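tool=predict chain=A
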Amino acid sequence: MVSIVQNVAIDCADAYGLARFWSTVTGCPVDPDARPGDRETQVTLGDGPVLYFNQVPEPKTTKNRIHLCLRPETTRDHEVEWLLGLGATFVGDHRKPDGTGWAVLADPEGNEFCVLRSASDRAAPPR
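tool=predict ok
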């Protein structure tokens, strides 16, 4: 027997607002029935699981134990700059001088996520 991952649940203070951020990041739509102020909503990721946003009363207080890792279509460093422009914050730099590694960012509510190297980054010769 196996289980299918149906969704990744993300507790937050503003379900609709955070869903809009992740919708822009992923290029996938927010549930068309969702409205500002809704206590829950989702972003459907193509053939993958759903990002499910659930409003909770308590704030985030510690590091995520599970997080999303993004593999951008553009370069990792370009994606980091774009995400910062969308409202993400920089948390940690694990990029190495040879071009390997990743960057850790946080979404507008402080949920950490990683930006990995893109296919073009991985295909480039080491620096």
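The mean pLDDT is 93. Strands lie at 7-12, 40-44, 50-55, 68-70, 89-93, 103-106, 112-115.
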